[in-house]
């Protein structure tokens, strides 16, 4: 029997939900590792809905669980029903939904609040010493909840290749150790069983992002 890995989504679409390519890469790599993905999302309204053509918010309202079900092909459960006892690991892909729907990082940065359901799930896996994989912006959740942990969101110096590098500086302000890594690399915090990779925090070809996520998934499954 393969490892059972919870994948927590935050909607559907980079600007207001889970990043679709990252989420798909996680599911493909889990399948390749012989692991069984169990997809969850919170049953809450999105912070807002963004028109992905214009990059602008609209007046629409959407539900995080309903939108995430698009990525999960309908095979999804309410995050409130997640039971850590039957699961071996946790992975949270990136996308602005992590900073908007799973937390308030998008508007409050290091002073953000992580949603109680998400915080409870992260703490449950951590307490059970089960590995947690995070990519793109989702490492900020661990930065907020596990002070002193080691993480990567890529590089800490902003440039064309690393447009979101200030995130690393903010995570350091929370007391975390940020480790600079290329997009195809991962960082493993052995003590906290956290595996992180930068994904779309980097302006990189999509196959490099896919490869970095593959290394993250492989290590999470190995640690499980």
Automatic annotation (TrEMBL):
It comes from the Eukaryota. This is GAL3A protein. It comes from Dromas ardeola.
């Amino acid at each position: 029997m393969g490892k059972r890995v919870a994948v927590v989504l935050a909607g559907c679409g980079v600007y207001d939900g889970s990043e679709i390519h990252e989420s798909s890469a996680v599911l493909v790599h889990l399948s390749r590792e012989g692991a069984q993905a169990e997809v969850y999302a919170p049953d809450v309204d999105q912070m807002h809905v963004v028109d992905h053509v214009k990059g602008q918010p609209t007046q629409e309202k959407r539900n995080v669980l309903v939108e995430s079900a698009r990525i999960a092909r309908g095979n999804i459960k309410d995050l409130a029903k997640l039971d850590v006892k039957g699961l071996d690991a946790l992975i949270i892909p990136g996308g602005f939904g992590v900073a908007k729907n799973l937390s308030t990082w998008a508007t409050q940065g290091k002073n953000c609040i992580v949603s109680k359901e998400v915080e409870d799930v992260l703490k449950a896996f951590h307490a059970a010493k089960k590995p947690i994989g995070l990519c793109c912006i989702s490492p900020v959740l661990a930065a907020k909840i596990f002070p002193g942990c080691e993480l990567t969101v890529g590089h800490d110096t902003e440039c064309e290749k690393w447009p979101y590098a200030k995130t690393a500086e903010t995570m350091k302000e929370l007391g975390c150790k940020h480790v600079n890594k290329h997009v195809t690399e991962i960082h493993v915090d052995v003590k906290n069983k956290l595996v992180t990779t930068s994904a779309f925090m980097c302006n990189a070809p999509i196959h490099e992002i896919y490869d970095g996520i593959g290394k993250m998934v492989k290590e999470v499954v190995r640690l499980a």
